[in-house]
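Severity: low
Component: inverse-folding endpoint
Summary: output formatting inconsistent between runs
Steps to reproduce: submit the following structure tokens with default settings.
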């Protein structure tokens, strides 16, 4: 079968479809906007390839052979399917969409990026589904290429160059504790800051060193980190019910009434958040719509 397909020119199949509809070389040529001799040459080529005369002289034009009759319907269906496959994509209609989007995110990016967009997504595209997967930085490119994820959120410094990207925002760190924390009535001094009992988020598990510690070390100082947790989502309740404090991304805590946010007594470098996606979905109308929903939601928050 594959050898036969390799020998066929798609134009010959289009010509055959016209001949089987018109039963006349002249009318088929007019329909195809070709010269009659050209269609005659193509018919001869088809007869050779298919080893059948296909059309025979008759009293009123040409009549198809049994092989030609058998070819007519499946050939028409195949050409229509091919036309549909290569046609320009239809505009995306979110109200009628039934996609399932798979997004890789940390608990931080799910809260700060997806959560603001979720209500708009559900309202505009109620038939779609969103699957949030744990971000695996080392596997991002492979997952995207295999279709296991459609999108990811990651910091700019660690984003793989193989994926398309768009900057979403630049995040900054703030000092956070419970609303009535005695050590946060005002901005603490650097000495007071280092003495506070602090908790750190260590995504890899068990770490006690982060950007804040690097900034302190540059001044020959160290803080009192007494607890390490793997996820940001644990922290709000933890801080609200204890005297622990933490240096956290501002977007996570800015609207939590249980927590007090103050400026830290030192500059800690923030990070840029990116939206990442593979080339295979870059021009997909539905994916483009989803990306814009996320951007618009962040701009309005």
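Observed output (run 2 of 3):
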């Amino acid at each position: 079968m594959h050898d036969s397909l390799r020998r066929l020119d798609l134009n010959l199949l289009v010509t055959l479809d016209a001949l089987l509809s018109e039963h006349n070389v002249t009318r088929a040529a007019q329909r195809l906007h070709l010269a009659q001799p050209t269609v005659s040459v193509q018919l001869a080529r088809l007869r050779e390839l298919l080893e059948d005369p296909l059309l025979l002289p008759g009293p009123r034009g040409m009549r198809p052979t049994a092989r030609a009759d058998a070819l007519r319907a499946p050939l028409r269906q195949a050409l229509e399917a091919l036309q549909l496959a290569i046609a320009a994509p239809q505009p995306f209609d979110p109200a009628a969409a039934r996609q399932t989007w798979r997004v890789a995110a940390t608990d931080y990016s799910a809260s700060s990026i997806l959560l603001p967009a979720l209500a708009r997504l559900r309202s505009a595209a109620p038939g779609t589904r969103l699957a949030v997967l744990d971000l695996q930085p080392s596997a991002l490119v492979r997952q995207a290429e295999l279709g296991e994820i459609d999108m990811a959120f990651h910091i700019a410094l660690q984003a793989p160059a193989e994926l398309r990207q768009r900057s979403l925002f630049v995040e900054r760190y703030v000092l956070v504790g419970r609303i009535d924390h005695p050590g946060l009535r005002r901005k603490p001094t650097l000495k007071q800051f280092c003495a506070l009992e602090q908790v750190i988020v260590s995504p890899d598990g068990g770490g006690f060193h982060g950007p804040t510690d690097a900034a302190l070390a540059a001044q020959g100082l160290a803080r009192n980190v007494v607890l390490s947790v793997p996820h940001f989502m644990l922290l709000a309740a933890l801080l609200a019910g204890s005297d622990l404090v933490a240096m956290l991304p501002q977007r996570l805590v800015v609207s939590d009434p249980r927590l007090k946010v103050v400026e830290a007594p030192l500059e800690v470098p923030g990070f840029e958040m990116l939206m990442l996606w593979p080339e295979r979905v870059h021009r997909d109308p539905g994916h483009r719509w989803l990306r814009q929903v996320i951007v618009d939601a962040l701009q309005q928050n």
